[in-house]
Specification:
The complex is a heterodimer of chains A (113) and B (108).
Chain A lengths: L4 E3 L2 E4 L5 E6 L6 E7 L6 E7 L2 E5 L7 E4 L6 E5 L8 E8 L7 E2 L3 E5 L1
Parallel strand pairs in A: 2-11
Antiparallel strand pairs in A: 1-3, 3-8, 4-5, 4-9, 5-6, 7-8, 9-10, 9-11
Chain B lengths: L3 E4 L2 E5 L4 E7 L5 E7 L5 E7 L2 E5 L2 E6 L4 E6 L8 E8 L6 E2 L3 E6 L1
Parallel strand pairs in B: 2-11
Antiparallel strand pairs in B: 1-3, 3-8, 4-5, 4-9, 6-7, 7-8, 9-10, 9-11
Classes of the chains: A mainly beta (113), B mainly beta (108).
Chain lengths: 113, 108
């Protein structure tokens, strides 16, 4: 069964460093998402991406964040200068269309020290 | 503000019991999703529904659009059902708005 994959599973970085979280969505999906979950809190939407551009972003997704689909398979989330409060689990998801089920990756646990 | 509320926050039950988890939302939605989050953190989609009822194995999800309420039921619960169950909705766009989750523990 096709699945969304994410790498790395755990990333530890120092405050101020740049990180890139990688996702490989399901191959025929067209819509891509990033969500995050701070420990003990609910999952929050960060950004949605379709047709090579951001379709919606949340207040969390400020200038420190960017997304890219550099080739036909990868979907990346970059945090330019990490802060302690960026420590969270980051989930990538993909779907075949608006109103269709979203499939989640296993997540990347980001720890900023 | 678009809110999603779940109850209870925590639920402990004996193996074999019938489980009900509730979700309510504040405004009209286009779809409601039930998700399962395992202890390791991974999220699995269980159901997506916009009306009526869906069943998969021992899991049943229902939604009442007029009352803005959905329930997830688990019949003949088993310790492997122990997880966090999350209700999430879409409000006419693509993004999911999540509830806080219900932590279910099934005791053998």
């Amino acid at each position: 069964e096709p699945e969304v994959t994410q790498t790395p599973s755990h990333q530890v970085t120092q405050m101020g460093q740049e990180v890139i979280l990688r996702c490989v969505p399901i191959s025929n999906h067209l819509y891509f998402y990033w969500y995050r979950q701070i420990l003990g809190q609910k999952v929050e939407f960060l950004v949605s991406f379709y047709n090579n551009e951001i379709s919606e972003k949340s207040e969390i997704f400020d200038d420190q964040f960017s997304v890219e689909r550099p080739d036909g398979s990868n979907f990346t989330l970059k945090i330019r200068s990490t802060k302690l409060e960026d420590s969270a689990m980051y989930f990538c998801a993909s779907s075949s269309g608006v109103g269709y089920e979203q499939y989640f990756g296993p997540g990347t646990r980001l720890t900023v020290t | 503000k678009n809110e999603v509320e779940q109850s209870p926050q925590n639920l402990t039950a004996q193996e074999g019991e019938f489980i009900t988890i509730n979700c309510s939302y504040s405004v009209g939605i286009s779809a409601l999703h039930w998700l399962q989050q395992h202890p390791g953190g991974g999220i699995v989609s269980l159901f997506m529904l916009s009306s009526g009822k869906k069943k998969h194995g021992r899991l049943i999800a229902t939604i009442n659009i007029q009352e803005k309420h959905s329930s997830l039921h688990i019949t003949a619960s088993h310790p492997r059902d122990s997880a966090v169950y999350i209700c999430a909705v879409t409000f006419g766009n693509e993004k999911l708005t999540f509830g806080t989750g219900t932590r279910l523990t099934i005791i053998p």
